[in-house]
Amino acid sequence: MMDRLPAELIDRIAQELTLPDMYHLASTNRLWYQHCLPRMYASPPLINNERRHDLFFKHTSHRTQQYIRHLRVDSSLITNEQLGQLIGCTGLATLDLSYCKHISPDSLNKVLTSCMTSIQRICLVDGKLAQSSLALLGHASRYFKLRSLDLSNTMICPCGSIDTPHHLDSMIITGASSALHELDLSYCSWVDDTTLSNITLGLPLLKFLRLRFCHQLSDLAIKGMVQHLKQISAVDVAHIPGIDDPVHARALLALNPLLEEISFTHQFKPTSLSRR
Length: 276
What we know:
Leu-rich_rpt_Cys-con_subtyp; 2 domains; alpha/beta; Leucine-rich repeat, LRR (right-handed beta-alpha superhelix); 11 strands; nine-stranded mixed β-sheet; F-box-like_dom_sf; LRR_dom_sf; about 280 residues; F-box domain-containing protein; two-stranded parallel sheet; single chain
């Protein structure tokens, strides 16, 4: 009887099910299995559950990986070998590999290459990035769908020290505009004025830019960025010398009519100013 239900009704029923219910229903017959499979694997719950994590990587296959849309891994559990297994994730929309300092460039690049044409948002917070990985991120934002990138508190390798400047030359190519809308470089001590200049020239569609604690930036570079990024809507320049009171924040707002909000530090306290 259940096999004769319209596909639309089956889909509606699947929308109302919890994940455990879906697992049970999928085991009843082939029809329900086919309808539940994409939902079962769309966003694997791998955080804070070692048993579930191990089971997933024990049984994962290219066939099931194609249904994964949102992937967030547990940094304390994921290994390079496991990440390298995920080359079947060709439909990923979001990828969160935050706090995975131990992940090798080869393992990361395999996943980035696999999801290159579909990925829309990537979080690599507190990670170590190679030039080859930056090049892949740039390619995804120029030619495909990558619109949001979080590189906060990352280290670019190789580097002489934690604050050795890096200008994202591998990711941003002059004359080849990126469609990236959101970029977070907070706590990246390698960001300097040249980095910001490259961002201004190579990422013309940026709407949200976070530069919190990027202490090598000058107020002149920030002003130039605000003037030239025609789509910019919000900027976070908290804890940056030179942008430390409402007067400076209002001056930035006056430079670009599309800029709606500035986050900055005033008297050691984070605050924000919005356009009225």
